[in-house]
Amino acid sequence: MSAIGNIPEVINNFNAYNNGNVLIGTTGQIQLPNFDAITEEIGGAGILGTYETGIPGFYSSMAQEIPFRILDTDIFSIMNPSEPVDLTFRASEQHTVKSTGSLDYKQMRVVERGRLKNFQPGTLELGKQMNASVTLELLYILIEIDGETKLEYDKLNTVFTVNGKDLLEKVRAYS
User: Fold this and answer.
1) What is the DSSP string of the chain?
2) Are 110 and 49 in contact (CB under 8 A)?
3) Is the CB of residue 60 less than 8 Å from the CB of residue 36?
4) Residue 168: what pLDDT?
5) Rounded-to-integer distance, Cα 142 and Cα 152, Å
């Protein structure tokens, strides 16, 4: 008999860090990057028409935008294009326990490494946030839930692991 699971609900709180230091000026929302597979159209003898096939481990450019309320010291700490940026997002995931109806929490950690791709200083308007942002080109991402690695992707070192399974093990062995 399997255990009764929890109902995932919301991100109760989160913080963003650069090299272990809290990025104070970030806004209340950060959109994590998409994984858009690079595909190739397949057709020819023995195939009716064509289809697209994904190439495991190959993803288009992955960008991470970090929005800031205003221009302040923290935004400039991640703007050196010759230095890699090491970001960590830590979050508390709120869940309801099905068997009791009580609340419980899980830890989520997302680690990203990348380089400066874009800087938007934002808008000056009286009494308003500037909506400044820095965008990074990501080369690495790690997603953990409760200390368990769910996804690790490293473009430069041929690493692509999902739920503990090395999806590129044979690729590295044969190449």
Assistant:
1) -PPP-EEEEEEEEEEEEETTEE-TTB-S--PPPP--EEEEEEESTT-SSEEEEEEEEEE---EEEEEESS--HHHHTT--TTS-EEEEEEEEEEEEETTT--EEEEEEEEEEEEEEEEEE-----TTS---EEEEEEEEEEEEEETTEEEEEEETTTTEEEETTEETTHHHHHH-
2) no
3) yes
4) 96
5) 4
Asked if residue 25 lies in contact with residue 68, where contact means CB atoms within 8 angstroms, the answer is yes
| pLDDT tens-digit map of 7-31 | 999 999 999 999 989 988 888 899 9
Average pLDDT value over all residues in the chain: 94
Residue that the structure tokens 């050196």 belong to: 80
Average pLDDT over residues 71-75: 90
Amino acid at 27: T
Task: Map tokens 């368990």 to a residue.
Answer: 148
Instruction: List pLDDT tens digits, range 115-150.
Output: 999 999 999 999 999 999 999 999 999 999 999 999
Which amino acid appears at position 126 of this protein?
A: L
